[in-house]
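ok, trying the design again with the full structure, not the truncated one.
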């Protein structure tokens, strides 16, 4: 009995190890700038529902051409068990796993969903017994999830095409003809999707860097007319565009650092530098001095007038008195 027990335990452990080895690894990060990455979710659904482990094809909008280059069948006709590629959903495109097609509708598992099955009897019964908004929320939380329905002719989201997963291209066997090489499985090299920066440095001002924060604002004085932007990447296989020295205009200046991972996935960091307006203290001081000079000149003119009046008025008064006495003597 002990030997049988040990044999059974050995078989169970072997089965678990074999399956863990066979399990493929999703080459995409689960989260990105838009929340759950559609590439991660579409790869996951293709693996779980279509039983296909896709290679890494970079951003969603590049999947169609990359799949075609890798030998996958592609086309414009919607089919179940395929990947739909949208070109303009976001700047990076969008992908999802097509579970079924009915008329002009495709039913897709993608990162913006999944949708709720509001026709499910359990959901209908739950809502019928719900008494307030809190119990409604519980019904929605526990509702069955299904693929979302999309119109293939929707002009808002242009479909590039479909990647068909029913036939997976076979990789060429480049190994030698000996038996040991034939039994070896080809090594799958997964390209890195690390498109993070580890730091951003600028020649003037400070940035409190966080790799998950994609926009920074900096204010500099007017006498700063040139700024140098440097950055370091987390992954040496990634590339950075946008590093260098830039002239600053007065007001808002915007600079972009584009990080491209080895698998061609991209992330953009934005640095907004505001150069202040020139100070006007000197002009104000000159205006003040001019006004002071004008006031002094005006005061001098007024004083001159007062002095003239002070002389002329008494003389006129004396002259009037003299004329009065002369005319009075003549009258006698």
């Amino acid at each position: 009995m002990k030997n049988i027990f040990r044999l059974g335990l050995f078989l169970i452990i072997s089965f678990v190890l074999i399956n863990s080895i066979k399990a493929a690894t999703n080459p995409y990060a689960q989260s990105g700038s838009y929340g759950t990455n559609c590439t991660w979710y579409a790869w996951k659904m293709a693996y779980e529902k279509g039983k296909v482990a896709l290679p890494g094809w970079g951003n969603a909008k590049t999947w169609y051409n990359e799949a075609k280059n890798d030998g996958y069948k592609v086309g414009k006709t919607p089919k179940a068990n395929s990947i739909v590629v949208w070109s303009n959903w976001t700047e990076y495109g969008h992908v999802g796993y097509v579970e079924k097609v009915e008329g002009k509708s495709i039913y897709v598992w993608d990162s913006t969903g999944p949708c709720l099955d509001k026709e499910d009897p359990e959901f209908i019964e739950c809502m019928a017994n719900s008494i307030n908004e809190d119990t409604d929320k519980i019904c929605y939380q526990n509702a069955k999830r299904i693929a979302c329905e999309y119109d293939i002719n929707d002009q808002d989201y242009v479909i590039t095409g479909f990647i068909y997963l029913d036939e997976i291209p076979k990789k060429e066997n480049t190994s030698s003809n000996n038996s040991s090489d034939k039994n070896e499985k080809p090594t799958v090299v997964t390209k890195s999707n690390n498109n993070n920066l580890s730091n951003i440095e600028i020649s003037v001002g400070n940035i409190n860097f966080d790799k998950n924060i994609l926009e920074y604002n900096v204010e500099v004085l007017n006498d700063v007319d040139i700024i140098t932007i440097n950055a370091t990447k987390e992954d040496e296989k990634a590339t950075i565009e946008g590093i260098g020295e830039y002239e600053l205009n007065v007001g808002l200046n915007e600079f972009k650092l584009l990080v491209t991972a080895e698998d061609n996935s991209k992330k953009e960091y934005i640095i907004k530098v505001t150069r202040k307006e020139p100070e006007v203290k000197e002009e104000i001081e000159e205006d003040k001095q001019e006004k002071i000079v004008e006031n002094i000149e005006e005061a001098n003119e007024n004083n001159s007038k007062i002095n003239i009046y002070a002389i002329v008025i008494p003389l006129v008064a004396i002259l009037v008195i003299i004329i009065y006495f002369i005319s009075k003597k003549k009258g006698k």
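Keeping the full-length input from now on. Residues 13-22, 173-182 have pLDDT under 50 and may be disordered.
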